[in-house]
Amino acid sequence: MRKRRVWGVAATLALALAVPVARADNAAAPRPQGLLDRMFAGPAKPDEPRVGPADEEAITARVRAERQQADAGKALDDYLRRLQVVDHLVEIALHTNNPALEKKARELEERAAAVFAKKSNPQPSVPEGFEPKKDRPTNKRSAPRREEP
Predict the structure, then answer these.
(1) Closest by alpha carbon to 21, among 39, 38, 35, 41?
(2) Cβ(83)–Cβ(109) under 8 Å?
(3) 30 alpha-carbon distance from chain centroid
(4) For a Cys-Cys bond, which of 75, 78, 101, 106 suits 93, CB 3.0-4.6 Å?
(5) Are 75 and 116 in contact (CB under 8 A)?
(6) What would the pLDDT profile of 17-68 be if each residue is shown by its tens digit?
């Protein structure tokens, strides 16, 4: 009686160890949906969506927009912090009756405004007054197109 139980446990253990090996061999084959397959096969893995070039462009555009927003917020925080320092310097200059310090503080305020304007409005890659030369073609072709008769 006891030997039958041992053999039954051994057979169950052997079957349990053989199922993953058999499943690994047939990984590319479609999985049948029988009762035993559901019990021993585990959960089905959904196909992951592939990221194509259009998706990558959308992701990079979104990341670029988020980075620009973060940079703009940081530039504003830096500007406000600099204005607080300038206000403190002006206050000290007024208490000590020091016109040179007040003048220097006003110059620092103008500098802070210039830095904020530069960081918040990035310059385009091509200057506004730039025009391509007339003697050089602007397209990528090295020779003009042939006209059809």
Answers:
(1) 41
(2) yes
(3) 36
(4) 101
(5) yes
(6) 666 655 555 555 555 566 666 666 666 666 666 556 667 788 888 898 899 8
Query: From CA 83, how far away is CA 73, in angstroms rounded?
Result: 15
For the CA atoms of the chain, what is the radius of gyration? Answer: 36
Closest CA to 112 of 73, 85, 74: 85
Q: Which of 105, 81, 83 lies closest to 94, judged by CA? A: 105
Tokens of 2: 């006891």
Report which of 86, 88, 93 is spatially closest to residue 112, judged by C-alpha positions: 86
Helix (H) or strand (E) holding 23: helix 2-25
Q: Which of 58, 107, 47 is nearest to 82 (CA)?
A: 107
Structure tokens at 72: 């703009």
Q: How far apart are CA 79 and CA 73, in angstroms?
A: 10
From 6, 14, 15, 11, select the one nearest 39 (Cα to Cα): 15
The first and second tokens of residue 96, run together, are: 């000590």
Alpha-carbon span 113 to 25, nearest angstrom: 68
pTM of the predicted structure, to 2 decimals: 0.45
Candidates 82, 84, 65, 66; CA nearest to 117 is: 82
